[in-house]
# Entry
Amino acid sequence: MKDADDRSLRLAGMSVIVVENAAEVCRLAADHVEAAIRSALAACGRAVLGLATGATPEAVYGRLADRHEAGALSFRDVTTYNLDEYYPISPIDPRSYRSYMHRHLFGRVDLAPDRAHVLDGTVPEGFAAEHAAEFDRWIQADGGLDFQLLGIGRNGHIGFNEPTDLPVAESLRLPTRLVELHPVTRADAVREFGSIEAVIPRALTMGVGTILSARSILSLATGPRKAEAVAAALTGPMTSAVPASLLQSAADRVIWIIDEPAAGLLPGG
Ligand code: GLP
# Structure
């Protein structure tokens, strides 16, 4: 369902589809998620999806839920694992990602409640590492992620894997864990929390290694504020300073769908 004015590029071995605007990104992304569900169901009778939060995927979930309500798509045989959650936070706090997922997807589709996994922002701190390790073990026990949906932070983060100076080989293996949020991420979270003082400065995040183990990865970016991170991830070197650039290590399994403003700093953009 590609329009004549879509552009397809290949950058660092990754497929990049550039469409006109954010609405088109979400329309096409919903098609990809649906196709991923259908192909996993056809292959093994169930689908394991990694899901993202943030403003970008909201309309993707809206479209998927609409398709479910129209009787065209079922989540009955789907299992989901979300990328991240603030820490500490109650699941009933409207700013939690658990609550976001209930509003945008879980509450509107026939996904089994005990197969919709979100990292637990209420786990006691001394148990957080074990909880995160258990999350990775559950993904493995479920056969691994068939598909991972990603957004990208303005600083190039994926999930809440923030920029670091770690050697690339170490970053590529990062497991799910408790992390501190980067100042740019905290500034962007003011949108959800109201003020910088109110932003919860830590989070549990799926690790880079866990994300990269997905059998296919769809990364979305919209708007001019993401242009710099998108260009660094797609045309810069693989570096822990731009976590999204680490997707280059799984290039043949990665598709980017971005809009023209987010593609503004790419070659020919
Ligand atoms: C948050 C989430 C990320 C998300 C990013 C971009 O930090 N933890 O998973 O990709 O924001 O969000 P937005 O789509 O709102 O720009």
Notes: Residues 91 and 99 are 6 Å apart (CA to CA). The mean pLDDT is 97. The domain at 10-187+221-228+235-259 is CATH 3.40.50.1360 (Rossmann fold).
